[in-house]
Amino acid sequence: MLELISAILTRLSMIFILHVTGAGAFPRPLCASEERELLLRASNGDIGARNKLTEHNLRLVAHIVKKYYGTGADPDDLVSIGTIGLIKAINTFNYEKNIKLSSYASRCIENEILMYFRATRKNSLDISMNEEIDHDSDGNALTLSDVLAQEDSIAEELDMKIKTEKLPRYIKECLTPREAMIIRLRYGLNGKKPLTQREVAALLKISRSYVSRIEKKALLKLRKRYERA
Q: What is the pTM of this model?
């Protein structure tokens, strides 16, 4: 259940950022001094700084996701997955190791996408967890497994921020029956396998774009409810 909450919170962050900046409109890249300041604040637990770093690096997600448009995967799902990788990168980045955030985040984003393909299709996109991302200032190799090793601490932070039992109550409070159904189908909250937007559209006999609009509206409602709490 905690993994589902993590996925929804991540999706909420992404939808909120895109809602604020406008569909397809990305904020300008941060200059070096702005990035350093935000990284320092983020390392001290500043959620606003983390959100701003995510917002100003969404262009990187879009750039990497374009490479996978010919695979048959749903573009919205790829953007969601890539954004998860970006948020993980920002949450685990160590600015003291003299590694560029863009370099570190690029590999984390791509790693998240490749793991998605490996888990769902078991195809040739499999990767090595010992693949090097970069080197720190002392010459020590930083591998993809180092990123994954941080997931336990991330899960603990999420657990501290929101208890899993709040989600069903918030869904009942905030969402219409159709919104609640789509959220449950998309994220597997009914105990079944999470469905893509295309699968939900086929099941409910509506267009995928309509599913996307309903999902985004529902997620924005849930985000506002979490913020009020």
A: 0.47
